[in-house]
Amino acid sequence: MSTALVALLAAAGFAPAQQAISTGTIAGVGFWRSGTPTTVTYTTTDAGGTDTMGGGDPVRVSMVSGCDPTLSRGERSEERWFDTSCFIGTPVGS
């Protein structure tokens, strides 16, 4: 944050900016990641190109009854944000 912006915010009565000027300290934490975001996809064809749903059923997933996909903070990671075992392919004809 620029000094000029802090001074402007302090002059406008913004308490955190006034504190930063009076104490002479500014601290912050930032987190940046590079790369392309991952897209979640689902297909009804297997690696060989066979339609596993049979007959053009819509592409959709179902949740396993009674399964909560929410992970606790300690279980979450960048690779696993929710419990994927709670989702299954919709059975043929459903």
Describe this structure in words.
With 94 residues, the chain is α+β, with helices and mostly antiparallel strands. Helix content is 19%, strand content 6%. It has a two-stranded antiparallel sheet. α1 crosses α2 (15-23).
Oligomer type: single chain
Strand % is 5-15%
Structural class: alpha+beta
Helix content: 10-25%
Number of helices: 2
- Which spans have pLDDT < 50 for at least 5 consecutive residues? none
Compute the separation of the termini in Å.
Answer: 55 Å
Overall number of strands: 2
Describe the sheet with the most strands.
Answer: 2 strands, antiparallel
Tell me the Rg in angstroms.
Answer: 25 Å
* Helix-strand topology string: HHEE
Choose one word for the global shape: elongated
Average pLDDT score: 75
Strands ordered across the widest β-sheet: 1-2
What are its keywords?
alpha+beta; 94 residues
Quick recap:
With 94 residues, this protein is α+β, with helices and mostly antiparallel strands. The chain contains 2 helices and 2 strands.
List the helices and strands and how they pair.
Blueprint: H1 3-11, H2 15-23, E1 61-63, E2 87-89
Helix pairs in contact: 1-2
